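Saturday, quiet lab. Running sequence design on the structure tokens for the scaffold JK sent over.
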């Protein structure tokens, strides 16, 4: 697997699983009817931020991550990131590789910490991965997310000192 910067041409490979993940409504706080153009603007970030894709040896996109500052002004020393892995590639280490990449990026950019603002508590694979990489749940917004199967569930705020 290779992780490289995403370009505009990569969107055609990202959008199908991006749409599937968002419309499932289980892990992201994005509108379920998010359109392709707005989604592209939200996901493909301009420098100094970064969007990457993980690709296999044939160049097929396995997953993607976007990395950015979490806050502006006096809070701009905290990074954040979001990840999407093609559901057909789940369990193959793509999410871990993307997360490790984003942590290294944040350190190289001089961020002091990384914070995830809205990790759905029922997304147990993501929570386990983030904990394994050193993130801690520093708070949970009770019933902050309306899950299509589990009803109202908490949104974790997760933090990693860099």
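Result came back. Writing it out in full:
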């Amino acid at each position: 697997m290779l992780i490289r910067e995403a370009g505009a041409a990569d969107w055609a490979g990202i959008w199908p699983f991006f749409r599937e993940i968002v419309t499932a409504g289980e892990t992201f706080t994005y509108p379920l009817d998010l359109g392709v153009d707005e989604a592209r603007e939200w996901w493909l970030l301009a420098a100094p931020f970064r969007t990457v894709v993980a690709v296999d040896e044939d160049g097929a996109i396995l997953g993607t991550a976007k990395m950015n500052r979490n806050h502006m002004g006096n809070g701009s020393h905290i990074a954040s990131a979001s990840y999407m892995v093609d559901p057909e590639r789940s369990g193959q280490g793509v999410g871990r590789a993307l997360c490790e990449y984003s942590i290294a990026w944040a350190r190289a950019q001089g961020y002091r910490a990384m914070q995830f603002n809205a990790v759905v508590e029922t997304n147990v694979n993501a929570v386990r991965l983030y904990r394994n990489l050193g993130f801690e749940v520093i708070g949970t917004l009770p019933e902050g997310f309306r899950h299509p199967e589990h009803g109202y569930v908490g949104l974790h705020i997760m933090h990693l000192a860099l």
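Notes for JK: The radius of gyration is 15 Å. Helices lie at 11-24, 36-43, 94-108, 124-132. Ask whether to fix the surface positions before the next round.
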